[in-house]
Amino acid sequence: FQSNSVVQGMWLLVAVCLPLAFGLEMTPTECKEAGFNVENLKCSSCEHLNKFELETLMTDCQSCCTAEKELKHEKFPMANLEVCECNLSRFPQIQAFVRKNMETAWNGKVRVKHVRGVRPQVVLKDSSGNARQTLNVEKWDTDTLIDFLNQWIE
């Protein structure tokens, strides 16, 4: 794919034309001169350099990047995905989750509950089974739903 070649070529040019000291913290100006946008560069992006055979830029990238803050939030011991069977075909991503029994991935902590007339929603519950939070998920795709459950279910 040609645009990948252009991007790779650009990075290689930066690596060859702007040699920088390894292991030293770089100033924002040095980062900019090296082709890194300090304001937008997240450290997780540096991990992708090896996909383009740009490992030589890893140290500089890590000197210029901003570490992402890990979001801390309450986790819940269980959740119900509530959906009306009669409306399921209107929400193909939710339908895929239900039909493929994806809730089994959480060992009984996530259950699909058919509730007449309800639009797709996730009900997060405490250890006593009391609803603590309800979220409308009708516009979520399957991957978003899975990621959410992975982050919010203990």
UniProtKB/TrEMBL annotation:
InterPro entries xrefs? Sep15/SelM_sf, Sep15_SelM, Sep15_SelM_dom, Thioredoxin-like_sf
Supply the SUPFAM superfamilies for this chain.
Thioredoxin-like (SSF52833)
GO MF terms, alphabetically ordered: oxidoreductase activity
User: Which N-terminal stretch is annotated as signal sequence?
Assistant: 1-23
| Signal keyword on record | yes
**In this protein, which residues make up the domain named Selenoprotein F/M?**
79-151
Which key words tag this protein in UniProt? Endoplasmic reticulum, Selenocysteine, Signal
Q: Provide the protein's localization.
A: Endoplasmic reticulum lumen
GO cellular component, as recorded = endoplasmic reticulum lumen
Major subcellular location class: endoplasmic reticulum
Domain of life of the source: Eukaryota
Q: Which residues form a coiled coil?
A: none
Question: Per the similarity annotation, which family is this?
Answer: Belongs to the selenoprotein M/F family.
Which PANTHER family does this entry report, sorted A to Z? SELENOPROTEIN F
Can you say what this protein is called?
Answer: Selenoprotein F
Give the organism the record lists.
Pristionchus entomophagus
